Amino acid sequence: MRKYVIMGVQGSGKGTQAKQLAADFDLVHISVGDVYRWHVQYHTKLGAQVRRAMNAGELVDDSTTETVVRDRLALHDWNYGFILDGFPRNRRQAQFFLESYDVDAVIHLDLPDSEVRRRVLARRLCSNCGMDYNLIEHRPAREGRCDACGGELVTRADDTEEALAARLADYHAKTDPALELFRGKELVISVDATAAKGAVQRAIREQLGLPQPVRKPQADRRR
């Protein structure tokens, strides 16, 4: 059984890397953000609480987040293990996790703030259908227009220099101490997240001692 936590600043590719590990090793990808989005979508009591926090520009409080994680892990649907994404976000949550669960490794996707800015400020959103774009990796066929519906692509309301600077400052103030706590337990592996997605995945597996992805054979170009 493999049990991992994946941590990294916004834009570091946590979800992408976690999903590939989960798919290849039969792990359950537990995204705290996805859990919250489900509750918001289905208008649960927790969803209302999450929406209030979001509207106020705040994070959901520690005790609620810890309860969500505890309840999700208590389902025990992770026969071969899990990879936890989006938790812990601060030192208190890290202490709670260490006191309650054992973990094999904490995967830290290391990304400089300058690269975070480059990636996040390139994000666009279709004003009509909501499809996500990134002008670095996923440009639309027609400039400024959604490939799916032709709607106008706009910048997200919270993707401004000022808002991003505030999020980065908050991340370093709260999450860096959580990482230090895990480092003290010799659980952290750090991977350079500036590389291409495939290279990041290979680096993660190398440090964890996991088999590398199987390369698909290229088609015979003589045909």
Describe this protein's structure.
The structure is a single chain. By secondary structure, this protein is an alpha/beta fold. It is built from 8 helices and 8 strands, in the order βαβαααβαβαβββαβα. It has helices spanning 14-25, 32-41, 45-55, 62-73, 91-100, 113-120, 161-184, 197-208; strands at residues 2-8, 28-31, 81-85, 105-110, 123-126, 132-134, 153-154, 188-192. The strands form 2 sheets. Strands 2-3-1-4-8 form a 5-stranded parallel β-sheet. Strands 6-5-7 form a 3-stranded antiparallel β-sheet, with no helix packed on it. The radius of gyration is 19 Å and the shape is globular.
Number of helices: 8
Low-confidence stretches: 219-223
N- to C-terminal distance: 44 Å
Strand order of the largest sheet: 2-3-1-4-8
Which range does the strand content fall in? 15-25%
Largest sheet: 5 strands, parallel
The helix/strand series, from N terminus to C terminus, equals EHEHHHEHEHEEEHEH
| Radius of gyration based on Cα positions | 19 Å
Structural shape: globular
Mean pLDDT over all positions: 91
Instruction: Indicate the structural class.
Output: alpha/beta
Family: Belongs to the adenylate kinase family.
Binding site for ATP: 11-16, 123, 195
Enzyme class: transferase
Subcellular location: Cytoplasm
